[in-house]
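The methods section describes the discrete structure representation at length, but only in general terms. Since the whole study asks how a given chain folds, the encoding of that fold should be made plain. An entry of this sort, consisting of the sequence and the corresponding backbone structure tokens, reads as follows:

. . .
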Amino acid sequence: MLYLTRKVGESIIINDNIEITVVEIRGKSVKIGFEFPPDASVFRKEIYERIMQENQAASSSSSTSIQDLLKKKD
């Protein structure tokens, strides 16, 4: 993991097209702003993990359903 120190108004650039800027610091809370291409997906980590779990569950049940359909065909 990379650790950087930035002040309010300072930014970092990732892959030439994602800019992250420190907007505000209040106590232990930091507000950050993002500029990124319109085709990029951005999720909070807990939401992303939930999506991945649901996708995994859906793909597991789908493969079982397909196998059941194939058995019924025979």
